[in-house]
Amino acid sequence: MSASSPLEKPDSSTALFADLYELTMLRAYAEHGMDQIAVFDLFFRKVPPGQNYLLTCGLEPLLEEFESFHFQERDLEYLSSQAFFPQSFIEQLKDFRFTGDVYAIPEGTPVFPHEPIVEIVAPIGQAQILETLVLNQIGLQTILASKAARIVHAAQGRAVVDFGSRRAQGFDAAIKGARAFYIAGVASTSNLAAGLKWNIPVAGTMAHSFIQAFPNEIAAFRAFVTTFPETILLVDTYDTLDGVRRVVELAKELGTACRLRGVRLDSGDIGALAVASRAILDEAGLHKLQIFASGGLDEHKIAQLLGQGAPIDAFGVGTSMSVSDDAPALDIAYKLVEYAGQGRMKLSPGKRTLPGRKQVFRNFHDGEAQEDIIAGCDEAAAGIPLLELVMRAGRRIRPAPALTGIRDRARRSMAQLPENFRSLPPPPSPYPVRISEKLQAYEQQIRKTLARS
Amino acid sequence: MSASSPLEKPDSSTALFADLYELTMLRAYAEHGMDQIAVFDLFFRKVPPGQNYLLTCGLEPLLEEFESFHFQERDLEYLSSQAFFPQSFIEQLKDFRFTGDVYAIPEGTPVFPHEPIVEIVAPIGQAQILETLVLNQIGLQTILASKAARIVHAAQGRAVVDFGSRRAQGFDAAIKGARAFYIAGVASTSNLAAGLKWNIPVAGTMAHSFIQAFPNEIAAFRAFVTTFPETILLVDTYDTLDGVRRVVELAKELGTACRLRGVRLDSGDIGALAVASRAILDEAGLHKLQIFASGGLDEHKIAQLLGQGAPIDAFGVGTSMSVSDDAPALDIAYKLVEYAGQGRMKLSPGKRTLPGRKQVFRNFHDGEAQEDIIAGCDEAAAGIPLLELVMRAGRRIRPAPALTGIRDRARRSMAQLPENFRSLPPPPSPYPVRISEKLQAYEQQIRKTLARS
């Protein structure tokens, strides 16, 4: 049975997830014989306020898009219907595929301003048409992974659960978000579609509406526990501490059969309620029952709660993480840096673009990252090179790594970042990123050429 | 040919775009004989800071999801693989459909706190399982439409073009966003997939990379104009005013064949550059060439530019609109308000829920909205009722209106809002929303019942 739902059957292929100007430029390039190899760099110029790094995310799903990139019949019919494209151009699109090479910093790596996260080397039209797709997908997943990394760090080893699907900006953000959060160290997601798609553990408790539907709170608790003995009960529908007392009452009814896991606090002064709830549970000998907190949490509130000693065992985080509320968009750029073997750059004020193909070298001391050097791709600088060849002639050079592998890499590479960059208070100075002297000289040389033109 | 791209072929159906707890509650409801009719209201408790209203959006795509709502084989296999669901429950899901009634305030209506935007009347499990879907989709599209409405108002009749796809939070946000923006009065979108899906006009100019790929700026301009004579040229790649002078040079070369439409400014002090560019163009007799501005614009910057008299004819708006950057999430709630004919509500602090089925009446004076009254659904209050029956027994009672019709309605209903609520400076007091005395009395009655339970 096939459904007509937008989630299931979009009307166009990914190739049409492009801005009109990418297609008009493609036509203009073709008509003017511009078919040489171009290099486009994806990078950002500064970290969002209050952040010290960004955690790369979104590469593997993007490479999958590149491999399957093509126009379908309906896309071409649509383009034909627009005034911009003659039939001869539409014919060319029928066989359009991405045949370029891609270099990238692997997912789950902390990165800094001006470092190329993805470098695409392809005939200029092919690289140009990917602009919107690349910016949208890597931009989104990178801000979400970065937000989650800060939240996970603030939770100091306690589990963080993704409750954000209801607030995420649409289907794709929720599902890609769950993946980004998991890579950044979040334990599980509430979203079933994400659980299926990425094989991420799913978790959940119960809603206020379940409690409200029953004649009273304890009747609702009893019913839910009959069906799900190992559950976490939501206690704030009417009065949080009364709710906790009803959990104690239920635990006594159940006696040795009690397999309850804990209570969830979702409103009010979570810190004070956690202390009071813990006291009530401990008083009743229910030391094993955990306290789960949710409701408007972010990295700062979690740090504050734990800083004041709130006895919270796990956190459910929604809104702030799901939309990266303090930095909902990243000023990420996808810029031409080389065409036909020659470096290119913009001179627009405040919009530095480093020309040419590059490599980023990370230098370590005692296992801690000390400094990055952005250099030309043929330079031999000190440090570990971060950019890897991931796609050659439009095909991935290795199968996609398992998500758990990407998650492990993120944990390791985050652990290599000095603590003052991982923690929330701003460090005395930003992480040092140096541009090699050779690359600086090349930038000056290209700048002069452009000034003369 | 079928592709494996995530945009084209998600792994699950919309039914699985749900939080785990919705499915566990569904099972618990079924096992405890809870199959009575429930009423759930979708509403928000306050407008985001700096906003005076929200513009409803997202209903018609949501109703389409409801009509096609079902679990597919793969969804059920996945649910079977989880610990929470016995085979008997999975069997029940095979025939699961949404058979409820839906009342809603039509898309493109300004709404205020506590007003039910959507009211769902269905067996409790059916209404419960829609929670994440409804919150995610209406929440997103409503904040995006509201942001765009403020931007369109600030542009004072000048065209606003959606350039936001590259910054939107994923595929769905970009495509649904283009629809929301169009409803709110945006003229066109750069996104081709959105253009195809919603039949929205598409627009675009050229990227810096096109200019950079050529040996110099005028060579790039010449090439592009040969292919697209009626274009807008991007002038800030190297130096904005030099770019404008090159456009003048090109216009002279073209002579009477010149069909250029204008120039685009994308960086620097847009206001001052617009004045200087206009002077250069006018000096050359190119009065017909328009000035198009883009680059980091939002409603406040547009208001400022026009307030200082910048000669700008149209605006391209991306980031701020695409993610609703000042309010990237809406604290929107989907709450049980009635079960088995009896009003229900939460008592959690700061989370008022009005019990029972409702109607919202809007009162007008001289064609201007003066006050809304939230009342019980069977009350006869003064004013025009806003909630309409849109779905009966799981089927829409009328075909989806054309998007242009929804856009017209938005324009009309926004025009009925007094100017001090439409404009950016905060009004002396919020738009008045009154709760009928009968509904207040019912709220008190239910509160007492709950306090006793």
TrEMBL record, chains A, B:
Pfam families the record matches: NAPRTase, NAPRTase_C, NAPRTase_N
GO MF terms held by the record: nicotinamide phosphoribosyltransferase activity; nicotinate phosphoribosyltransferase activity
Superkingdom per UniProt: Bacteria
Keyword annotations: Glycosyltransferase, Ligase, Phosphoprotein, Pyridine nucleotide biosynthesis, Transferase
Keyword Nucleotide-binding appears in the UniProt entry: no
Biological processes annotated in GO: NAD+ biosynthetic process via the salvage pathway
Protein name per UniProt: Nicotinate phosphoribosyltransferase
